[in-house]
Amino acid sequence: MKNKKKNLKEMIALGSKTAKAGFSNEQDVIDRFNNWESDKIAQEWLAEMSYKIDDIEYVKASKVRGQYKADIQVRITIVIKLKSQEDVQNLQVKLVSNPQGFNQIDKRKIDKYVELWNIPKDITQILKLFTGEIKPTKKDLRDSRRMFLDEMDQSDQDKLVKFVKENKILIVSDLLKGRGEFSADWTLVVLKLNGESKWVLKSINHVMNVFGSGDIRITREGSLKIGKIGMQRKGGDGGRESAKMLQFKINPVELFK
């Protein structure tokens, strides 16, 4: 365990850049972008996005309203040889205080995922048994309200894994990038640790490669893992219907590698 913590600290130190000033919320990121001419951290972010600071005429960052993958939209005007070109970059921001913690990236009712991914009826039933939307008939379960995946027949486990494998690119893209005008182009992770903040900024394609790479498998806890993306029943909520939603999580600190 000590070696694991040591390796994590080394990983963060190598993969991050330090921001002495604190980050309390997304507004701090917006303010930095909007003060880009004097804010060195914002200039570093823009450089990470492959912009030359001397080419930039102005930057306008604003909060994206609604349920989208992007949290912040940054409009950047670049002047190149007397021609103006406006770029729009959508950022999702992850503020993290626990290097070992997990961050929810998506949660919905199963029927919403059925629409998104054209999930067939047999897979839908497996997922609804998993979350408790369909009450199990088996006895001696870990939780009488639902079934963990490893409590299901092996054939059902294999069906689910096969479906996810066949649709992996679509699923990973929807979970991490999203669709449409406000799909994410970049992910900014800010880790607040030991009184200082460290950050890493990566393109969404890099993010999808990091978290989407790896096997699709049933875990020892009876949930599903898609590379480094975990799928689980939402739970909580005082037992209300919303507890039966499906949710997906990642550890954003993986981007510091």
- What is the number of helices? 8
Beta-strand proportion: 25-35%
Class by alpha and beta content: alpha+beta
Please give the number of β-strands.
Answer: 11
Helix content percent band: 25-40%
Whole-angstrom Rg: 21 Å
Order of helices and strands: HEHHEEEEHHHHEEHEEEE
Coarse shape: elongated
Average pLDDT score: 88
Largest beta sheet: what is the strand line-up? 1-7-6-4-3-2
Q: Point out poorly predicted stretches.
A: none
Distance between the termini: 18 Å
For the largest beta-sheet, the strand count, sense and barrel status come to: 6 strands, mixed
Structural commentary:
The chain is α+β, with helices and mostly antiparallel strands and about 260 residues long. It is built from 8 helices and 11 strands. The mean pLDDT is about 90. The protein is about 30% helix and about 30% strand. The radius of gyration is 21 Å and the shape is elongated. The strands form 2 sheets. A 6-stranded mixed sheet has the order 1-7-6-4-3-2, sandwiched between helices. A 5-stranded antiparallel sheet has the order 5-11-10-9-8. It has helices spanning about 1-15, 25-35, 40-50, 110-115, 120-130, 155-165, 170-175, 205-210; strands spanning about 15-20, 55-65, 70-80, 85-95, 105-110, 185-195, 195-205, 215-220, 225, 230-235, 245-250. A hairpin with an 8-residue loop joins strand 2 and strand 3.
